[in-house]
Amino acid sequence: MSYQHILVAVDGSPTSDHAVAQATSLAQSTGGRIRLLNVMDPVAHISGFEQPEVYSQEVLPRLRKAGEALLHQAQERVAQRGVPVDTVLIENLDARVAQLVVEHAQAWGADLIVLGTHGRRGLARVLMGSDAEQIARTAPVPVLLVRLPAGADVAASA
């Protein structure tokens, strides 16, 4: 199968960066294009004690800016290798991250979903093992799970 529409979920972790690199190589060989997807998960970053105005005026803009920055960095790396690429930032209000990734893959017409298997926790957290597993189980298209090579460090994945 020739993968023409490759969806890559990114979270800024070394594993996610490696998934972008693998997807880029695949897109180069198939003549395909890549869509980079980041799911903001603001609920994971609140304590429940924030005032609504603090949440909407400080927390959300900070998360949005961080998501846009990591998408932009990944987009530049893909574009430098001559692969058509675009980005999507989704704000998660109440769904599982896995559900949002699968729904976006269907809506966009993805032929393949590429994921790093160990996402970062905290501000850049998008995918955790359970989300990657859920995507692999429920996606209507093949899912490529990418791990860092044994002994790889942060610099090796960039």
Structure in words:
The chain has 158 residues and is an alpha/beta fold. 34% of the residues are buried. Helix content is 46%, strand content 18%. It has helices at residues 14-30, 52-80, 97-108, 129-138, 154-157; strands at residues 5-9, 33-40, 85-91, 112-116, 143-146. It has a single domain (5-83, 100-114, 130-149), classed as Rossmann fold (3-Layer(aba) Sandwich), CATH 3.40.50.620. Helix 4 (129-138) links the parallel strand 4 and strand 5 (143-146). Strands 3-2-1-4-5 form a five-stranded parallel β-sheet, with helices on both faces. Helix 3 packs parallel to helix 4 (129-138).
Blueprint (SSEs and pairs):
Elements: E1 5-9, H1 14-30, E2 33-40, H2 52-80, E3 85-91, H3 97-108, E4 112-116, H4 129-138, E5 143-146, H5 154-157
Parallel strand pairs: 1-2, 1-4, 2-3, 4-5
